[in-house]
Design goal:
single chain, alpha+beta, Nucleoside Triphosphate Pyrophosphohydrolase, 4-stranded mixed beta sheet, 3-stranded antiparallel beta sheet, 2 helices, 7 strands, 30% strand
Length: 153
């Protein structure tokens, strides 16, 4: 692999995966961070993108690495690029939504101390800018998108 030197600094790219259930009161899968920054705080499963993968592949890989949960269908929520969103440095994240029928057994793995489902109306405070991502995920979830097979009766 060649090493390049760039005139301009480049940000890091991460991907996060918001997993919600199709229940009357949806639940959200969160991980308790096992490392700094925000060690001990709750966040969405996610992490840094490898050079040989897309952000979609990264979100799916990180979800499985941190919780054991495998998904194949995800939908982009958005990109988040506040300058100070990550204390480690300039980081842009692309967040994705996955929807499952009901909570699936998960376990904190890799750099996640715990993985746990929370009712959407009882979420703990979230690390980074994940509160913003959660609001956008709820809006996408509530959108009448037939591809998810959701009923909004």
């Amino acid at each position: 692999m060649s090493i390049y030197t760039y005139k301009y600094p480049r940000p890091a790219v991460t991907a996060d995966c918001v997993v919600m259930t199709k229940e009357a009161v949806p639940q959200v899968l969160l991980i308790e961070r096992g490392i700094d920054p925000y060690k001990g705080c709750w966040a969405f499963p996610g992490g840094f993108m490898n050079m040989d993968e897309t952000t979609e592949q990264c979100a799916i890989r990180e979800l499985e690495e941190e919780t054991g949960l495998k998904v194949s269908k995800i939908q982009q929520i958005g990109a988040y690029s506040k300058v100070d969103r990550d204390p480690r440095g300039r980081t842009i994240t692309v967040a994705y939504l996955a929807i499952v029928d009901a909570p699936i057994s998960v376990k904190g793995q890799d750099d996640a101390a715990k993985a746990q489902w929370f009712p959407i109306n009882e979420l703990p405070p979230l690390a980074f800018d994940h509160e913003d991502i959660m609001q956008d995920a709820i809006a996408l979830y509530n959108n009448d998108d037939e591809s998810w097979g959701l009923s909004h009766a």
